[in-house]
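Protein record
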Amino acid sequence: MIPSIAPTAAPRKTVLAKFSGHRLLASPGGLAGTVWLAALVAASLTASWWLPYKTEDQDFTAVLAGPTAVHWLGADELGRDLLSRIFASAAGTLGTSFITVLVGVGLGTILAMTAAAAGDRAEGVISRVTEIMMSLPGTVIILAVIGAVGTNIPLIMAILGVLISAGIYRVMLGQAKSLQSQLYVDAAKVDGVGTLGISVRHVLPGLTNTIVVQSALIFAVGMLIQAGLAFIGFGPPIPEPSWGGMIQSASQHVYDAPWLMVPSGAVLALTVLSANAIGNALGKSPNAAASHLPSAAIRRKRAADAAAAAAAAPPVDDAPGAGQLSVRGLSVAVDGGTPLVTDVSFDVEAGTVLGLVGESGCGKTMTALSLLGLLPSGVSVAGGQILWNGRNLAAATEKDLEAVRGRDIALISQEPMRALDPMFTVGYQLTAAIRRLRSVGKADARGEALSLLEKVGIVDARRILKAYPHQISGGMAQRVAIALALSGKPRLLVADEPTTALDVTVQAEILSLLRSLVKDTGMSVVMVTHDLGVVADICDNVAVMYAGQVVESGRTANILDNPRHPYTLALLAADPHANTADDMPERLATIKGQVPQPKDWPTGCRFAARCQFAGSACTTPVPLLPSGSENGEVRCVKADELAVEGLAWVATEMPAHRVLEIAEKDMA
C-alpha cells in the first residue's frame, strides 16, 4: 500500500492578484470610472502644485479662445484658463456631493434597519414621518434655506441628503425586513445577540449591494443638483469657480464661442457616468454569474468549440437507435482549461434507467447537465459526443437544443422550487408549458395539466392547479416538477437527485412514481444520485463516477453483488442499506480524505491516495477495461486480483464505545 499523500497547499494569492480580481476592476466600465475619478481627485487636490494659472488670472489676448498651446482647454469670456478652473473646483464639487451621499444613504439605511428591527409600531411611526418628508417640495425648501443662510453649499447638500433619505428608506425597508426574517437571524437571537448586534452583523452586510448602488446614484444626483444651483446663480460666490457656474457662463456664448461649453460639460458628464459605472460594478453580486446560464455569445462560442472537437473525433460506426442515448468520450472543462469531467462514456437504452453514482464533487451533475446543454457560465464541453436520435448534442447549436429540451429530453432538478415560479399558480405554469411544447389550445392544455397531475399521484389535482408553489409541501412540489418535466412527452428524463431533500416515505413514493412512468411510457431515465439504495431500487445499469471519471459501470445487480473497483467496494461498505441485519458490521467502513479538486488530480489512479489496496502500479494512467461481467467495465489495475482474493473494504477506525471501554480499563 502507498501512504496517503496530503495535497500540496495552493500558493497564496499576492495582494496584487487579489486586488486585480476585485469585481470593480473586473468590469471595464468600473475600471474606467475608478481611474477617471481617482485622476480627477488627485489632480484637484494637487492643483496648486501643477496648474499653469491661478483661477482668477486673466489673459485678455485669449478671451473666448479655443484650445491653444498656452491654454490647453481654452479661456472664458474674461480670459481665465478653463483647465485651471475646472480642476481647481473639482475637489469641492465631489466633496460636497459626497456629503449628500453620507447623509441621505446613511440616514435612510439607519431608519430602515431600525424600523425592521423595532416592530410594527416603530415602523409605522418612521414610515409616516418619511412619507411627510417625501411630500415636501425639495426645491422650494432648498431655495428657502439659501434665502435664509446664503449660499452655503455643504449645508445645502446636507439638507438635500435629509430629503432624499426618505426615498432611500423606502427602498431599504423591504430588504431589511426580509433579512430580519431569515433563519440565521433567529439563530442569532437564540444565541443572545441583541437587536443592535443583529442589525450590524447580519442585516447590514445583506444591504451592501443596495447601499453601493444607491450611493452611486445619489452621488451623481448631488453633482447635477449642485451644478443646477450654480447655473441659476446659487453657486459658490464669484470669482470662485464651479462647474455649474462655468456652464452658465458658456451658455451665454453658445453661438459666438460654442467650444466654451465643451470642457466643463464633458467633465461633468464623464464624472456622472463614472459614478454610475462604479455603482453598477460594485452592485453586482460576486457570484451572480455562476447561478445563470451563459450568454448567447458564450453559447455560440461553446457550440463552435464543441463542433470542432466533434469533427476531430473518430467516425461512429454503430450509431445508437431512436430513443437511445450514447455518451462517448465526453469531457467537460472550465473555459480556462481546468477539466471537470474526462472521458465519460455510457449508453442508455430506451425504457431503461441509468444511475450516475458517487460522492459530491465527482462530476455527476456536470455530466447530466451537459446532456441538455445547460452547463453553467464558464464551463463547456471540451470533447466527446452526446448522440441522440442521429445528432450529436455536444456540437448542437442553441437553436437545435431548444428543439430538444422539454420535447425529447427533460430535467428534474434536485430542488423543485428551481423549476416552479412562485409568482404563478401551478396550473398556469403547467398549462403554459403544455401549450408551448405541444402547440395545443388553452382548454386542451388545462385538461392535459389535470391529467399529468393525476398521473404523478396527486389526488386533489384540481385544487393543486389553483395553488401557488409555496402553498404545497416539498413532496407535492417534486411531483408537480415531474409533471412539468413530462409536459412535452420526453423520451429521456434527466433526474438530478430528485429525492435527496425528501423524507424516506416521500422518497419511496417518488421512486415508485418514476418506475411506473418508465414502465408505462417506455421512456429512459438518467438518475443522478449518491444513494446506492436508490440505485438498487430503480436503476437497470449504473456508472460509478469518481473525480470526473467513470471508474466502474455495468448492470446494477452485477455491480452491487460483485463490485470490481475499490471505490465501489468502499461505497457499499459505507452504506447501511447494502448490509442485512445478520451481516451488519459493528462499524460501517469509511473512506478517508475527500474527492480531490480538479486542479489536484494525479496523473495515475485518482482514487489511489484514498485506496486501501493501492500500490506502485496505481501511479500510472489507468484505462477503462472490460470487467468480465457482461458489458461491465472497470478502471483498476487490481480489479482481477481483488475479485480472485475476495477482498473487502474494511473499517480502519476503532468504534467509539471500544475507545471508551479501553479508557475505563486503563483508569481502573
User: Anything to note?
Assistant: The longest strand covers residues 325-334. The chain is about 50% helix and 10% strand. Residues 305 and 480 are 36 Å apart (CA to CA). The chain has a mean pLDDT of 84.
